[in-house]
UniProtKB/TrEMBL annotation:
This is Rab-GAP TBC domain-containing protein. The lineage of its organism: Eukaryota, Fungi, Dikarya, Ascomycota, Saccharomycotina. It comes from Hanseniaspora guilliermondii. The keyword Plastid does not apply. Coiled coil: none annotated. Keywords: GTPase activation.
C-alpha cells in the first residue's frame, strides 16, 4: 500500500462521550488493487518505529502547503500491504462509500473537527488537535509570517482541516453543499445534507434496494464481478437499473465520475455486444440534433503554465500526480521547457516518482542498452556507412527520407550529396535519426513507411544529440500511443481511425456529414496524413504544432488525434458546406489549409468530446423509460461506448 497523505494529532470519537477518544493518524492510501481509501490508525497500537515513521510522514506532506518546503525523503510504500492494513488500521473505507464530510473550524470554545458520514448513514467524528500536530503548526507559522495582515479583520484562523481538505480534493472530487459552505458532498444520496440527519425518505428506491450498506458505486462493483454470464444477468432484474442509475451519481466535471462512467461503459459493452452499430448511430444523431443549434464560441486562450518550478521542485521531484500532469497537458498551454522535461515522464521513459539524479542514471543505462542494440543491428545489416550502396529496401527507404530532412532545420543541413542519386549522409544529426529509424523498424513486422521520419525528426529537434533518449521516446509513441498502427501494410490502423472519425462526424455534425456524402467525401482520405505523421506536414501560422502533440501525448483521450481532426472539421464546417462543391475542391482545400490557432482547435475538440459524452448520457437516461421486460440489447455496442475510454493512473 502507498501513503498519499498523513495527518497527526487526530482524535477519533467513536461515541458522544468526550472522554472516549482515540489518538491517531488520518491517512489517505492506495491499496494494492489501486483503489483509494481514507483510513484511521490508532497510535497506541503502533510500534515505536511506526510512530516515528508516521510522524515523519505528517511533516513530509507539508510540501503540499508550503511550496519552498524541502522534505526529508521518505518511502511512501509500506511493506506488508494487506497484513499491515489488517493489523493497524482502526477504520478504513473507500472514498466511494463516503456521502459527505463536514469540516468544522475551531473556535475559542472547541477544537476543529471533521464529521464523516457514509452512504449507509454511519458517522465518524475526528477532532484535530492542532497544538499536537507538527505539520499544522509549521503551516500556521508560515501563513502568519507570509499572509497575515494585522489591519484586516477578515483574517481566518488556519487549522488542520484545511490541508486535509486539499489532500482529499487531490484524489477525489468534492462538491460544496449549497446550504452549508463547510459541507462537501463526495457521493450523492437521494437527498442532500441537512441539519436533520435523521430525516430520511424511507420510501425511496435507494432505501428499498436490498438495503445495502455501501454506496451505489460499491454495489455496482459487486454486481459487475458477479455478472459472468447472460444467465446471471437475467436472474437479477435490478442490475440494468443500477448500472444506468450510475449516470446520476456525480457531476460531469468530476474525475471520479468520468472514471466510473468508463467502467460502466466497458462492462456494458463487453456483455452485450451488438452488430447493429448503425442503429446506435442513428439514435445518437437524433438525440444530438435536438441540441444542434448550440455553437462553440471561442473567447480566450486556455490557461498557460510556463514555469517549470510550478510543477517540479529543485531536486526534480514532481509536485503533481500523473493524472494532474495529463490534465495539465490536455487542457493548458505549456512552455517548451516543461514540454521537454515532461514528455519522457508522460510516456513512461522515466518513472513519475524519479528525481533529476535518478533520471541521469536512467539516461546512462539507456545509452548502454541503445549501443548494444545499434551494434547488433550493424552486425545483422553489415552496413554502417550511411550511403546508398548495398542497402536492403528498408534501409534504403529510410536513408532517402532522412536525406530529404536536411531542409527541415539548420542543424540538419547536409553538406554532401547535392544530387539525390548520391544519397549520402554527412550531418551527424541526420546520421543519428537514420540509426534511430533503423533500430525502430529493421527487425519489426511493420517496417519503415514514409512519414515515420517526420515524427522521429520532430522529437529529435526537441532532444538534439540525445540519440538513446529520442529512440526510447519514439518507441513509446510508436507502440504505446499506437502510431505504428497507422503505418501497417494492411491499413487496419488508419482505417479504424477514419471509421471512428466518420462515426463521430455523423453524430456530432450531421449537416457536415450530409454535405460530405453529397460530394463522395465521407471516406476522409484527405485528412489521413494528419493521423499518419501527427500533423507535422500541416501549415501553422505560429509554432503551434507541438500543442497538438501535447494533447496527444497527454494520453487523456482514447483517440486524441481523432478529436483534434474533428475540431478542425468543425472550425471549417461552414466553409465546407457553403463553398466546397466537389471532392477535388475539398482535397485542395485541406492541402492548402493553414491552421491559424491551435488553441481554438483544441478547445473545440474538448467541447465536442463533452457533447458526445452528454449525448451518450441522454441516450441512457431515455433508456431508463423503456419497459425492462421488452428491452432490446444495447444498440450502441462496444465501439460507440468505447470511444469514451480514458486512462486511469
Amino acid at each position: 500500500m502507498k501513503i498519499i497523505y498523513c495527518k497527526a494529532g487526530c482524535f477519533l470519537h467513536p461515541t458522544k462521550n468526550l472522554k472516549d477518544n482515540i489518538n491517531g493518524y488520518i491517512i489517505i492510501y492506495k491499496s494494492l488493487d489501486n483503489f483509494l481509501y481514507l483510513g484511521y490508525i490508532k497510535k497506541s497500537s503502533l510500534t515505536t518505529s511506526y510512530v516515528d515513521y508516521f510522524d515523519t510522514l505528517d511533516l513530509y506532506f507539508v510540501k503540499d502547503s508550503i511550496i519552498d518546503q524541502k522534505p526529508t525523503r521518505v518511502d511512501l510504500n509500506i511493506s506488508g500491504g494487506i497484513d499491515f492494513a489488517n493489523k493497524y488500521l482502526y477504520y478504513s473505507f473507500p472514498f466511494d462509500s463516503i456521502n459527505l464530510i463536514h469540516f468544522r473550524k475551531p473556535s475559542k470554545f472547541y477544537k476543529g473537527s471533521i464529521l464523516i458520514k457514509l452512504l449507509n448513514s454511519k458517522e465518524f467524528v475526528i477532532f484535530l488537535h492542532d497544538d499536537e500536530c507538527e505539520s499544522t503548526k509549521k503551516i500556521k507559522q508560515f501563513k502568519i509570517k507570509t499572509q497575515y495582515n494585522p489591519f484586516d479583520n477578515k483574517n481566518e484562523l488556519y487549522y488542520g482541516g484545511e490541508d486535509l481538505k486539499r489532500a482529499i480534493m487531490k484524489v477525489t472530487p468534492m462538491m460544496r453543499e449549497k446550504n452549508n459552505e463547510n459541507v462537501y458532498i463526495l457521493n450523492n444520496k437521494v437527498s442532500s445534507f441537512t441539519s436533520d440527519l435523521e430525516n430520511k425518505d424511507t420510501g425511496s428506491f435507494w432505501n428499498n434496494l436490498e438495503n445495502t450498506k455501501w454506496s451505489l458505486m460499491a454495489k455496482f462493483a459487486d454486481l459487475s464481478v458477479s455478472l459472468t454470464s447472460k444467465e446471471t444477468y437475467k436472474k437479477n432484474e435490478k442490475v440494468k437499473w443500477v448500472m444506468n442509475k450510475i449516470q446520476e451519481i456525480a457531476p460531469e466535471e468530476s474525475k471520479k465520475f468520468i472514471i466510473e462512467q468508463q467502467r460502466y461503459l466497458q462492462h456494458w459493452a463487453e456483455r452485450f455486444k451488438n452488430n447493429s452499430e448503425q442503429e446506435g448511430i442513428i439514435k445518437l444523431r437524433k438525440i444530438e440534433m435536438t441540441n444542434d443549434g448550440k455553437e462553440f464560441i471561442y473567447q480566450t486562450e486556455r490557461d498557460s503554465v510556463l514555469d517549470l518550478n510550478e510543477i517540479m521542485d529543485d531536486e526534480g521531484y514532481l509536485k503533481i500526480t500523473m493524472f494532474e500532469l495529463r490534465s495539465l497537458f490536455n487542457f493548458n498551454n505549456i512552455s517548451n521547457e516543461i514540454r521537454i522535461k515532461m514528455y519522457p515522464i508522460l510516456l513512461g521513459v522515466y518513472d513519475i516518482s524519479s528525481n533529476e539524479l535518478k533520471r541521469l542514471q536512467d539516461d546512462e543505462n539507456m545509452k548502454l542498452e541503445y549501443e548494444k542494440l545499434s551494434t547488433k543491428l550493424n552486425l545483422s545489416t553489415g552496413n554502417d556507412n550511411f550511403s546508398g550502396d548495398g542497402l536492403d529496401e528498408n534501409s534504403f527507404q529510410i536513408l532517402k527520407d532522412v536525406y530529404r530532412l536536411s531542409s527541415m532545420d539548420p542543424i540538419l543541413a547536409n553538406d554532401e550529396g547535392e544530387e539525390e542519386e548520391n544519397w549520402s549522409l554527412s550531418n551527424e544529426h541526420l546520421i543519428s535519426i537514420n540509426r534511430i529509424l533503423l533500430n525502430l523498424t529493421q527487425n519489426h513486422p511493420t517496417q519503415y513507411v514514409q512519414g515515420m521520419a517526420d515524427i522521429v525528426s520532430t522529437i529529435y529537434l526537441l532532444y538534439p544529440s540525445q540519440e538513446a533518449l529520442v529512440y526510447n521516446i519514439s518507441l513509446r509513441m510508436f507502440d504505446d500511443l499506437k502510431l505504428r498502427e497507422n503505418f501497417r501494410e494492411d491499413q487496419k490502423g488508419i482505417t479504424h481511425n477514419l471509421d471512428i472519425l466518420n462515426i463521430l462526424t455523423d453524430i456530432l455534425m450531421p449537416s457536415l456529414m450530409k454535405k460530405l456524402k453529397q460530394i463522395d467525401a465521407e471516406n476522409f482520405v484527405y485528412v489521413y496524413k494528419m493521423f499518419l505523421v501527427l500533423f507535422t506536414r500541416e501549415n501553422f501560422k505560429s509554432h503551434d504544432l507541438l500543442k497538438f502533440w501535447d494533447y496527444t501525448i497527454a494520453g487523456f483521450r482514447k483517440y486524441p488525434q481523432t478529436w483534434i481532426v474533428l475540431g478542425i472539421l468543425y472550425k471549417y464546417k461552414k466553409y465546407i458546406i457553403n463553398q466546397v462543391s466537389s471532392f477535388d475542391d475539398l482535397f485542395i482545400f485541406f492541402n492548402k489549409l493553414e491552421i491559424e490557432n491551435a488553441d481554438e482547435i483544441l478547445q473545440i475538440s474538448d467541447w465536442l468530446y463533452l457533447k458526445y459524452f452528454n449525448t451518450i448520457k441522454r441516450f441512457d437516461m431515455e433508456r431508463l423509460k423503456w419497459d425492462v421486460d421488452n428491452e432490446a440489447d444495447d444498440p450502441l455496442g462496444p465501439t460507440l461506448r468505447g470511444i469514451l475510454d480514458q486512462p486511469i493512473d
